[in-house]
Specification:
heterotrimer, A alpha/beta, B alpha+beta, C alpha+beta, B: alpha+beta, C: alpha+beta, 4-stranded antiparallel sheet, 12 strands, 48% helix
Chain lengths: 234, 436, 408
């Protein structure tokens, strides 16, 4: 599903070179649920951005769903994001001026579905997250957990093969966080591949597979206990 | 606290100079345009002799044709006939009275170095000078006997005296006007009533006259009729006298009464005069005499040009657009400051405090916009002067009233415009800016 | 191209009304002023484009006033005309009492029937000699020109008017609406109620001296020399392209006798026209300046609001990009948003424009604005909005999609 080989990402300013990822390699299979942990500044977010085609990389190869994405144009990458990837953000990133229906509608508009198709998908997605009775509400009228469920609905509505979550529980209390995690596991159980960056070791352990990022490199399946307190404080 | 707010306003200016400058510029453009047009309208609608407004009257008699009125609104003609102005003058029924007309001819100075030149005359009676408060530098108006005897006496304008006599006291000197020798009895100072209320037939905003001579010289010297001449029937007979005695109107008649209460008496006199004339076979129309004080006369003649009024209305809308623009800029400025506002609220500033703070900031922008707007209106008026030429020379000066008005309008309108953004700013919640 | 996001954009605008309303109102008022200004400019341009009938490019005037005792007016006039006509570069010259569209002149009323209280038609009168038609550059379209014997001396000794006159087509039609202008040749008309005169010719066109007069096209040529007051105005038509040289030559010629007369008012016809229409041309220029400043201010307002919205929505734009919006989609979003705002502005603007025009019509006797100003004007404001919003929209499209995962 996702295959990264020797990916490097270097940020250059006039005086400093920062290596956010060095020789980063990772394979994620179809149907997998991978969590990514690691201390602040380790390169988790950069990995996520590259995996989600939000950023380009300096060297290496990346195949998404069997297709090399190294040299795609900006608009081709946009289309790929739209069709294959669903995003879930730490701070939900709902558009405050739009109601739930219109928020879930956002990626579908760019997909070019007709309005009947969009309506069906929005209703289904909101049904899945249990918010179909709130379609006309604005994000500000919902609790944090509900907002994140809307964001998940938005990510699901386009039926992506691959879901990227960036600390989806980071801004939620534990009760809400658990319900969001249950939802993600359900989605994974229906075949969607999930990669999730998290700080929570408990949630990380629930995943099928766990990778740890430090200094821009992967250490597979090595959950080191002493790293956890520092991670939780980031 | 007020000075603290002023200081904060200055800091805010410094922090966001471009946005602040844009606001000041928008207001300055609006104020500049409005002040330019208001000034022109204000000067056009000026009453140049307010102090005597209630005792000076312009006289109209309806001497027109039996078949149609002189004017659309059934009004009498704007001017009078030679016969009538002379009769009214001689009746002396007012405290002061002056018949008058425009004429012109060539002035030949005695001094051979000064070339002869064409000049405009005001033919009138000696009451003209005290009646209209005409200022003299040298000498005075002529004696009443000069009017009676058609003496060759002249009052020079300052310009002409400068030209012929180099600005010296020329009383007693001689000058040749239209081929005849005149004695100078007086020289007047600069005198340019705006509008030229006493004769609105041609050039409402033009100069008064180059020289003033007795109207009684019109007949012996056969002086030409300048200005407007209108006739409803042709002169009977030929020659200059026949033309003078015709029903053609080319003369104005003004009286000064001792008090406004005297108006009714003079009006009765006019009516009885017209009745007498009717008995002689003149004045075929119904009795329709009018007396207008200066203000009424200016208004009746619609001295303010349509274009000037149109421009004033447009410039008001223009200012409105500038203010809308400013509201938009203020909103973005104040919302951009929500962090600071939230902090001030958090450390205990009340909504009222913040409202005042931003209102002061708004007023500062208004005052700055007004000052810059004044400068713009100065250039605007220069522009109007260039475009309109001589006509606008006397209509394009900014006086202190206008300057105060400019600052006042800009400050008040800016504050009104600023109320909504200010309210929005002061309504920002103490922790509002923390939300992601 | 994906479909327009009209619905969500509109609903989103409704939640942030103030900025949009401010811009829409600016557009509306600017539209009202600009369209009315353009309409006034158009009307004034039409006024200024009217032809006076004169060969404007090659004509000029000059006046002479004798002041010396013993000045012989008639001799001077005849000699002047002879000498001016003989100058190289002069096509022809005539005396004339006043010049078309110059602001000052003489008008009289004419009747088809003799007697008091009969319907009459006013017309301006130009006193010229038999060279008047050629000098003015007007065309005789019916009848005949004056001959030397038609010329009468107006010296104050004899009553009345010349026997034969020439009228413009417009005057002929005004007096004899049922006749073709050519049929008016030979007709008798009456001046001063009862004095007869005969139309011997019709000229194509010549304007009266007063540009604001409703009978501007009514003009009559009367064959006369005015003598007795020592004043004359000469109207001179130069050969093609020779005007400026000829003006200097004629002034020099007349100035030979500067000791007994004043030579002044040397002015080309173009100067006279400029002076007469100076208020209109000034109005036009002022309106242009006002329009340009207003459009600039409104344009700047649109840019400002759009930039403000872009800055306020950085994360939102990043999120949209992450969710699959292409750069073009983002540009399109802001352009579409502007279309919505402009539509609101144009709708209010149309109402304001009509209102302002109606006010001007009733208060200042302006004409009614033709309907097509509104759609064309609206279109221009859409264009202005799109141009103004393009910069901020482009800036918005360059916000990286990774903005979505950036934590504040």
């Amino acid at each position: 599903m996702l295959k990264m080989e020797n990916i490097s990402k270097v940020f250059r300013t006039d005086v400093v070179e920062t290596h956010a990822l060095r020789q980063f390699s990772l394979n994620v299979d179809e149907g997998d649920f991978v969590t990514v942990t690691g201390p602040s500044g380790s390169g988790k977010t950069t990995f996520l951005n590259i995996a989600g085609l939000l950023e380009t990389y300096s060297s290496g190869t990346y195949e998404l769903d069997g297709k090399d994405v190294s040299n795609l144009s900006d608009s081709a990458r946009s289309r790929l994001r739209n069709e294959k990837i669903g995003f879930i953000f730490q701070s939900f990133n709902l558009i405050p001026d739009l109601n739930l229906f219109d928020n879930v509608d956002v990626p579908l508009r760019y997909r070019g579905f007709n309005s009947a198709e969009r309506k069906k998908r929005i209703e289904e997605a909101l049904e899945t997250v249990g918010l179909s009775n709130r379609m006309k509400h604005l994000p500000a009228q919902l609790s944090g957990g509900q907002q994140q469920r809307v964001a998940i609905a938005r990510a699901l509505a386009g039926s992506p093969r691959f879901l990227l979550a960036d600390e989806p529980t980071g801004n939620l209390d534990s009760k809400m966080a658990h319900s969001v995690m249950d939802l993600l596991h359900n989605i994974n159980a229906q075949g969607t591949t999930i990669v999730m960056v998290t700080h929570d070791p408990g949630f990380a352990k629930q995943a099928k597979r766990n990778i740890f990022v430090r200094d821009g490199q992967v250490s597979e399946n090595t959950l080191v206990e002493q790293d956890l307190p520092s991670a939780a404080s980031a | 606290m007020f000075f603290y707010y002023i200081k904060l306003a200055m800091l805010s200016f410094k922090r966001n100079p471009i946005l602040s400058l844009l606001m000041v510029l928008a207001i300055a453009f609006g104020i500049g345009a409005l002040m330019t047009t208001i000034t022109v309208n204000y000067l056009m609608s000026n009453n140049p002799i307010k102090e005597k407004n209630d005792v000076l009257y312009h006289i109209q008699l309806d001497s027109w044709s039996p078949y149609e009125a002189a004017r659309d609104d059934d009004a009498p003609p704007l001017q009078l006939t030679w016969t009538d102005v002379n009769n009214l003058q001689q009746a002396e029924q007012a405290f002061r009275q002056a018949a008058m007309a425009r004429s012109g001819g060539i002035i030949e100075p005695e001094n051979p170095d000064v070339k002869p030149f064409q000049s405009s005359f005001r033919l009138t009676f000696t009451d003209f000078f005290p009646m209209f408060n005409v200022p003299f530098i040298y000498g005075a108006g002529w004696d009443a006997s000069a009017d009676q005897n058609a003496e060759h006496v002249v009052v020079l304008s300052r310009d002409v005296n400068d030209r012929i006599f180099g600005g010296e006291n020329s009383v007693g000197e001689s000058v040749t006007i239209s081929g005849e020798t005149f004695q100078v009895v007086g020289v007047i100072d600069e005198w340019h009533p705006v509008p030229k209320f006493f004769d609105l037939n041609t050039g409402d905003f033009g100069g008064t006259a180059d020289v003033f001579i007795p109207l009684s010289l019109k007949l012996p010297m056969e002086l030409p009729s300048w200005g407007n001449t209108n006739c409803w029937k042709p002169p009977e007979g030929t020659g200059f006298l026949a033309f003078l005695n015709s029903e053609c109107v080319n003369y104005q008649f003004w009286v000064e009464l001792t008090s406004p209460q005297d108006e009714a008496r003079y009006h009765t006199f006019l009516d009885s005069y017209v009745e007498q004339q009717k008995a002689l076979g003149r004045f075929p129309r119904p009795l329709n005499n009018r007396m207008s004080n200066v203000q009424e006369w200016l208004e009746y003649n619609e001295v303010v040009a349509d274009d000037a009024q149109i421009m004033m209305w447009l410039s008001m809308m223009f200012l409105l657009v500038c203010l809308l623009n400013t509201i938009g800029l203020m909103l973005s400025k104040f919302i951009g400051k929500s962090g600071e506002i939230g902090l001030r609220r958090a450390v205990g500033a009340t909504r009222g405090d913040l409202f005042m703070q931003h209102l002061v900031e708004t007023a500062c922008i208004g005052v700055a916009g007004g000052l810059l707007g004044l400068l713009f209106s100065y250039f605007g008026l220069q522009g109007v002067r260039t475009l309109y030429g001589e006509f606008a020379d006397r209509l394009t000066t900014l006086d202190s009233n206008m300057m105060l008005l400019a600052i006042g309008i800009s400050t008040i309108t800016t504050i009104i415009a600023g109320i909504y953004p200010t309210w929005r700013a002061s309504a920002i919640a103490p922790a509002g800016q923390l939300k992601g | 191209m994906t479909q327009l996001n009209l619905g969500p954009i509109f609903r989103s605008l409704l939640r942030n009304k103030t900025g949009a309303i401010l811009i829409a109102l600016q557009i509306a008022f600017t539209m009202a002023i600009v369209l009315n200004a353009l309409f006034i400019i158009g009307e004034r341009n039409d006024l200024m484009a009217r032809s006076s009938g004169v060969d404007e490019a090659n004509s000029f005037q000059i006046s002479s006033t004798g002041f010396a005792t013993g000045f012989n007016h008639l001799n001077t006039l005849e000699e002047d005309l002879r000498e001016i006509r003989a100058l190289p570069g002069v096509r022809n010259a005539t005396t004339i009492n006043s010049v078309p569209i110059s602001g000052g002149g003489w008008s009289m009323s004419f009747q088809v029937e003799s007697g008091e209280n009969k319907p009459s038609t006013p017309s301006s009168i130009y006193m010229v000699d038999e060279q008047g038609i050629d000098t003015l550059g007007v065309e005789l379209v019916a009848g005949s020109n004056f001959t030397k014997t038609d010329i009468r001396l107006r010296d104050g000794t004899q009553e009345g008017w010349p026997q034969n006159v020439i009228v413009t087509v417009a005057l002929a039609n005004d007096m004899f609406p049922e006749l073709d202008y050519a049929e008016t040749v030979g007709k008798t008309i009456f001046i001063n109620n009862t004095e007869p005169m005969q139309i011997i010719g019709v000229i194509d066109q010549l304007q009266a001296p007063w540009i604001g007069w409703n009978k501007l096209e009514n003009a009559m040529l009367s064959p006369e020399y005015i003598v007795g007051d020592n004043w004359n105005r000469y109207f001179i038509r130069a050969e093609e392209g020779m005007r400026d040289q000829t003006m200097r030559d004629v002034e020099e010629l007349l100035a030979k006798r500067a000791d007994e007369r004043l030579v002044e008012n040397l002015r080309s016809f173009e100067e006279i026209r400029e002076d007469s229409y100076s208020r209109h041309s000034a109005m036009i220029q002022i309106l242009y300046v006002v329009m340009i400043i207003m459009i600039a201010i409104t344009g700047k307002g649109i840019v400002g609001l759009a930039s403000f919205n872009v800055n306020r929505r950085l994360r939102q734009i990043g999120t949209r990009r992450a969710l699959g919006a292409s750069k073009a989609n983002i540009v399109q979003y802001f352009m579409t948003e502007n279309v919505v705002i402009t539509t609101l502005g144009v709708i209010v603007g149309i109402a304001l424009t009509i209102g302002l025009n109606m006010t001007l019509v009733s208060a200042f006797e302006l004409g009614r604005m033709p309907w097509y100003f509104l759609p064309l004007g609206g279109l221009c404001f859409y264009l202005l909005g799109q141009v103004a919003v393009f910069g901020p929209a482009l800036k918005a499209s360059s916000i990286p999609p990774a903005m979505a995962t950036r934590n504040v």
